[in-house]
Amino acid sequence: MNSNHPVFLDKFRQKQTIAPWLPIGIIVAIAAIVFFYRIDDESFWIDELISLGDVRDGRGLPPRNLMRPLYYILLSVWVQFGTSDAWLRSLSVLFGLGAVVLLYWLGCRIAGKAEGAIAALLFALSPLVINHAQEVRMYVLSAFLCIAGSLALTYALERPQPRAIGAWILLRWLAMLAVPLNVTLTVADAALILWIYRKRPRTYIPFGVAFAVLGALWVPSLLTTLQEIDPDSRYARSDHVANRQSPGVADLVRLFKFYTVWPFAVQSDAIAANFYKLFTLVLVALPGAALLQKHRDSRLFWPLAWFAIPIGEIFLFSQISLSLWVTRYLLFAAPFAFVLLAAGWTRLWRQWRIPAVAIAIAYLIAVGGGLHHYYTVDDRTDYRTFVETIETQEQPGDVVVWAIQHTRPRLPLDHYYQGSAEIVEREALIEDLDAAAIATWLDRLPPISSRLWIAANIIRDNREPLKTAVERQFNVREYRDLDNLQLFLVTPREDRATPSDDRLRSSAYGVPGEGF
């Protein structure tokens, strides 16, 4: 065939146009599958319900929330088009898919096309990333903005023009409005700018102006953040923060396992535990294969700075003040770790194929175990089943005793419950109680004329004593045991007096909830 024929040339140009996009197209397709797969299988956990509650009552929106309002602003728009669990979680999926594309782009610019594709694939297959991409929270949005800001800075470092510098500062500010800890990236940015332009100090001026603008933009959020992290603040004194342990050196190493596999325990299986320990050590060593080679690319120190400096800042802060070492808080640094892992593996592949293949196989096994755990093990409290059981079986005159541990215990009801029963809130059974204390708790329940639902959040040691006490005092028509939740549908025993409707609604027996 004549190669100069117009049809041949058109097909050739088309192939040349499509071919460069095939790797990232395939990776985005894989990411879409794993991000959307079983997205609404599990109930919202309490933090997701907090997100919705904060949008519903305005707590998450300015001016009541100046610390991290960005995700709530976006969610307040998103909820106008749907309220199903899958729809609400899909907002994070969109940012997850965007993060995959941006990470590919960043990896290509810093290390090469192969490294960019591998980094994007590692990000897409991370069970930790998938978990937060299937969550009504701000952590994947945070990662998306952090990658975007670093990508913009790569252009500004090459040619410090106003457009590139402006895009970088804008994206860093938005990232800080998503999660305040993202401010730690600006220290890494400053280190890179100082080093790269050390022989051209005049170039510091536009970057210095940009930092001043960023500081001015962040002042309202900064003041709120400083109040929140003060050791005497309500947040710092809350149980889940005050009891949080400061990280150790081992936690720095395990972070690679958490990023790539999942922070689940495997100690019950000695072989699996040893495999994951060895796997984690190999991951920690991989970046060295890229950074310590004789003809290394100096640009690989850029993702190293964006990963190591913020993690180091948070690690040190957690030693001297309240601990902020929570895996989801550290998710924003994961993309840069994936670039380093990808660069290390590709350089190993070019020099020693057999070890590279062995590491790739081990990685697939490890990630496969993490994905299997994520998709098959229910780690979230099943509020949805809990509430829907009541709603689908309730009858006129039913009363629900809602004894759930939280500062805002009605959040699961606000999202899932569409019924009409009267709601009475009571304290949760979250302390170790003896039989007499449990009996006293039951005696203080509202008297019933027909049917009473008891929805209780309890600790494990109270499960059987509560069940035994309820069976002794009532006729149990329905019983569900859902992890740390117990649900009873009871009716009066024949030997117990039936109260009047006036006593049923008496405030002496509890605080009635609002009707639905």
Automatic annotation (TrEMBL):
User: According to its UniProt record, where is this protein located?
Assistant: Cell membrane
Q: Which GO terms describe its cellular component?
A: plasma membrane
Question: InterPro entries given for it?
Answer: LipidA_mod_glycosyltrf_83 (IPR050297)
Report the protein name in the record.
Uncharacterized protein
Top-rank taxon of the source lineage equals Bacteria
Tell me what topology the record assigns in the membrane. Answer: Multi-pass membrane protein
Keyword Lipoprotein in annotation: no
UniProt entry keywords in alphabetical sequence = Cell membrane, Glycosyltransferase, Membrane, Transferase, Transmembrane, Transmembrane helix
Q: Which organism is it from?
A: Oxynema aestuarii AP17
Q: Where are the transmembrane segments?
A: 21-39, 86-107, 136-157, 169-197, 203-226, 271-292, 304-323, 329-349, 356-375
Q: Where is this region: Disordered?
A: 496-516
Single GO MF annotation: pentosyltransferase activity
Is this entry keyworded Lipid metabolism? no
* Cross-referenced PANTHER family: MANNOSYLTRANSFERASE YKCB-RELATED, MEMBRANE PROTEIN
Which Gene Ontology BP terms does the record give?
Answer: lipopolysaccharide biosynthetic process
Where is composition skewed (Basic and acidic residues) in this entry? 496-505
